[in-house]
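User: Can you help me understand a structure? I only have the sequence.
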Amino acid sequence: MDLAQTKYPFEVSYEEIEAAPEPFISAIFSCLESEFLILPKGDGFVEYPVFEQAYETLKRTTGGFNNLTGDVVFAAAKQTPLTLIVLRTMLGFTPPEWAYVATQRSSIEVTQGFARSLDRNIRMSPFSPLRLSAAAARRLEALVNTACVLLNSPAPATDADKIHRLDKADTREGGATIRSLAGIGVPYAMLLYERLLGRSFAGHRDSVSELVGDILELAIEDTLTKAGISPRKTKRAEKISGFDQAPDFIVPDEFNPQVIIEAKLTEDDGTARDKVTRVQHLGALSMAGRPKDSPKYEVVACIAGRGFGVRREDMRKLLLATHGKVFTLKTLDRLVAHTRLKEFRTR
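Assistant: Let's start by predicting it. Here is the structure, written out as tokens:
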């Protein structure tokens, strides 16, 4: 489809969209794009050479993993904190999972908040020696001791229809398989299989999920700023009078809302359906007790991600709920000109 010749729903009347929505659904689909192959690194991203340096430190300190004991690893972790993240990846646990197992296996309560904060602080300063309070030291000891016990023990047997989380190439037989793989390297086929089980980059994507969503919001802010429009940007979970869930942007403000902008990014069609429902609800609120051609405020949807490009019926609902005011990253440059935002333009 030639984008230059495409007629978008925000360029025509609502009646035209109601009469024949299909061409406009195709127009939106044609300019939706996904960035799921590219992720922001975010603060605290650990580059491979840095990770490898910590891995080699742990390997050297434990004598090639022959002495993978709590005391040895705890001492190494205090001096080179990133070895703790290496240890966690050997387990294949998230920080909260590690905390849970440590609490279950020791007399120390290791909170998930502690594990998350520790992980975050290490990523920010991977080679700065840890300064721990007495309580924090006890929790860290519990984490390390639990990890060492698990990693030195063979994976427990399970029923045929189940698999244990430690039944992995490097931990299946405890310390023996760790030392074997550390000494000879991992066969490529097995490495790919491990990725299949764990979804490549899943942990990092989860850690930067808010930054992924911010890509769209930042683009909207940039568009409004260039037009000299100062929107009221709400915070997550903020309470705004008149809305059971705060919209992402309100122009000019919540005391006199004239334009409501919802920024929605999703790579999953199921989540897209939920987000369309959210915009539909805002559309219904704008029309409550009002004539058809006189909504309380204009509802605008700015969307991104492949999830919105799956179900045509969902896109039809979105077009009708917003009276055609649906924009993508490729059409954001027309956002102000084709909505009531132009009434607030100062540049």
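Now, to help you interpret it: The chain is about 50% helix and 5% strand. The chain has a mean pLDDT of 90. Let me know which part you'd like to focus on.
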